[in-house]
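STRUCTURE:
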């Protein structure tokens, strides 16, 4: 059930812009801590909420998560990002932040393009 009333395309575009501007980088105003893709941006319906009050299945990204991964603690980290099916979770485990962010950017661009085409065809 998706109760996130934002437009998917707008959120994905904002996320891409956020990442391209260095969004998950270190802030000089806050102490360093590991960041979480999607969770530490406005894409997350629980952004800034340490209690994560809203269930992830209410997030618009839930529609992009494989059904068998919706029960994971961070479902959006199980979205297949490429033809090999690599996910944010797997790429985080590998520890290559640059590869992770490049993979997410490619996925965002491809997903935005696909949604734009689908909407244009639906007319």
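SEQUENCE:
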């Amino acid at each position: 059930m998706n109760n996130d009333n934002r437009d998917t395309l707008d959120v994905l575009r904002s996320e891409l812009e956020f990442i391209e501007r260095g969004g998950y980088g270190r802030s000089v105003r806050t102490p360093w801590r590991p960041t979480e893709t999607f969770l530490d941006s406005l894409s997350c319906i629980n952004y800034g909420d340490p209690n994560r009050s809203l269930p992830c299945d209410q997030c618009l990204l839930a529609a992009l998560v494989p059904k068998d991964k919706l029960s994971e603690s961070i479902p959006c980290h199980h979205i297949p990002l490429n033809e090999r099916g690599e996910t944010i979770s797997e790429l985080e485990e590998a520890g290559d932040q640059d590869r992770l962010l490049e993979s997410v950017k490619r996925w965002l661009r491809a997903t935005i393009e696909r949604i734009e085409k689908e909407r244009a065809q639906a007319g």
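REMARK: The chain has a mean pLDDT of 87.
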